[in-house]
Amino acid sequence: MFDLTEKLEKAISSAVAELYNEAVEPEITISENFEFGDLTTNIAFKLASVVRKSPGEIATEVADRIDLPDGVECAEPTDSGYVNFRYSADFLRNLLAGIIAKPMDFGRSDIGKKTKIQIEYVSANPTGPLNVVSARAAAVGSSLVNILRYAGYDTNSEYYLNDAGNQIAMLGDSFIARIRQGAGLDWEIPPEDGYFGDYIADLAAVYSDKFPQKYKILVETWEKGEIPDTEHPRKWIIGELIQQIKDDLEYINAGFDRFFSEAEFRKTGKIEKVLETLRENNTILRREDAVWFSADKYDVREEPFVLVKSDGEYTYAMVDIAYHQDKFDRGFELVYDIWGPDHHGHIGRMKAAMKALGHEGKFDILTLQQVNLLEAGKKIKMSKRTGNIVTLREIVDDVGVDVARFFFIARRMEAHLDFDLDLARKESDENPVYYIQYAHARISNILEFAKNKGIDPKSADRKELEALTEPEELLLARKLAIWPHILRKSAEEMSPHYICFYLLELARLFHPFYSKYRVVGDDKKVTMARVALCRALKEALALGLGLLGISAPENM
RNA sequence: GCGCCUGUAGCUCAGUUGGAUAGAGCAACGGACUUCUAAUCCGUAGGCCGGGCGUUCGAGUCGCCCCAGGCGCACCA
Predict the structure, then answer these.
(1) What is the pLDDT of residues A105-154, one digit of tens each?
(2) In A83, A311, A421, A483, which residue has its Cα 20 to 30 A from A198's Cα atom?
């Protein structure tokens, strides 16, 4: 809907075919400056060496020959070699009328072709509250899911709950130690891999209050010098921490379609099956009583790694490989993970394993870089082990969901993020999120004002919109026309941050327009048209903010 | 030692996959509220795009070599 790129590409290729008998796939880009029109192709540069003419010459010939599709007003060659295209006024009016008629479909596309795609993100171990890195992952992942869904993918989000294995055992040990501490017994948290955070001591206190009988038995058994059954408290704290994680994710507006339990998965027997498949594929070797995967067979840069330890336990890698096989068994055609930098060393391994299982090209990992929290100009050092962390909840409480989400999303995933808390707090009145939201609130107010005067163009027609003639008005309409491109790029490149910058630019055009012109004025025609423009703008802003999981307030 | 990520305005970051004059927010300076929201607007200033060499019509973007910061290199997860 309202994306002329494809039509234009066809028109250009057929013009080129007629002129030079060459087959090309033209690139259409958005002009970065509106002086250069709305859309641009650099086809003449690509052809210059093949056709042996200057780019400028080719641009002129192509521009003359091209059969312009509906909605494109003209093709303008430049001396340097570009061909610039301009949307027709009629196209822009159509666009505005279209947005108002079907606001929830503006820029919606089917580029995903209903492909079944799964995005796994956060997946932090349930050994403590979520930290800022998880907060970033939650924000980015959830908006990516929204964007892919809007782009026509059959999208599912999943959180892998690592609720089994060594770290969980260590968590249990740490928790038991804290219970002993609460009971006044001698206690020690496992020094190597234990969890030292205060939250565990707090939960120990909750446990003894909540289960006085079980607590009593525990303490009495210890006092007799015997070893009690600690299964209940161990299970309880995991459940408790998982619930906290789910609450935190809700808190930052990141919903998941599914939480996938490792403990449950281990019972299904799938791990054995996958191991068997790998064995059949002749990718397994035994060495020193352990079972290894020959990753080097699939990627020369990788080395074999252990799947089953000599004590018979599966490694994390083995379980994770089987888990990913299970995703494909469940029918996902594309599987994406968002991983933190600390798991970087495993990317090559996992990819090699997926290749071995026949999923090459269907699996990819997006790496999300770390977050540095700055306070008073200094980095806050964080360690989950020692419990010295800044939690998701703390940061959201501090700056608000909308601000936190925007800051997390508004940068490339690969970029390290310096989150200056002082700045976020101090400038919370003038940060970019409010700039965008304020545009939305202002427009809402105008529409309310207009409505009270009996002006409510729910279904604006093109005739009314002919009164839009000022350059600022047309610029706004042209900016709106870009929205489908932005969405497509965002989905194709799995990059939610483009949406942030687009919305900022849109707001950046609206505010000056607002101060310069009156929307509701004496001229009825102009008023109608401007109110309609405002409606379209409001829908686009709300849509974009919605995809980012950020609220679009009516009042500020 | 090996691998990955990053280096763009004082600060935080974009830069349409190699294209036109490198952009935005904050911070700084000077202005603007009697009409739909001043969380706004108008104006000024701010840059050897870490450094070097190369590739070509053309490089912030690609290649190689340095420099700086971060993160990984387990029969841990």
Answers:
(1) 999 999 999 999 999 999 999 999 998 999 999 999 999 999 999 999 99
(2) A421
- C-alpha A310/C-alpha A308 separation (Å) is 7
- Chain B bases under 7 Å from protein CB? 3-7, 11-17, 19-21, 24-27, 35-42, 57-58, 69-77
Confidence of residue A191 (pLDDT cuts 50, 70, 90): confident
| Average pLDDT for chain A | 91
Q: What is the pLDDT of residue A24?
A: 80
Return d(Cα A154, Cα A337) in angstroms, integer: 16
- Of A239, A61, A32, residue with least CA distance to A43: A61
Of all nucleotides, the one whose C1′ comes closest to residue A505's CA is B24
Structure tokens that stand for A481 in this block: 């026309």
The pTM for the full model equals: 0.94
Is residue A325 classed as helix, strand or coil in its secondary structure? helix
How many Å from the CA of A503 to C1' of B25? 13
A64-69 own/partner pairs: CB under 8 Å, 24+ apart = A65/A15, A65/A18, A65/A19, A66/A11, A66/A12, A66/A15, A67/A11, A67/A14, A67/A15, A68/A11, A69/A4, A69/A7, A69/A8, A69/A10, A69/A11
Å: A508 CA to B30 C1': 22
pLDDT band at A386; cut points 50, 70, 90: low
Which nucleotide is closest to the Cα of A494 by its C1'? B17
User: What residue ranges define each of the domains in chain A, with the CATH number in brackets?
Assistant: 5-87 (3.30.1360.70), 93-111+430-548 (1.10.730.10), 166-232 (no CATH)
The CA distances from residue A321 to A15, A111, A117, A118, A318, in Å, are 50, 29, 18, 16, 5
Q: Which nucleotide has the shortest C1'-to-CA distance from A437?
A: B39
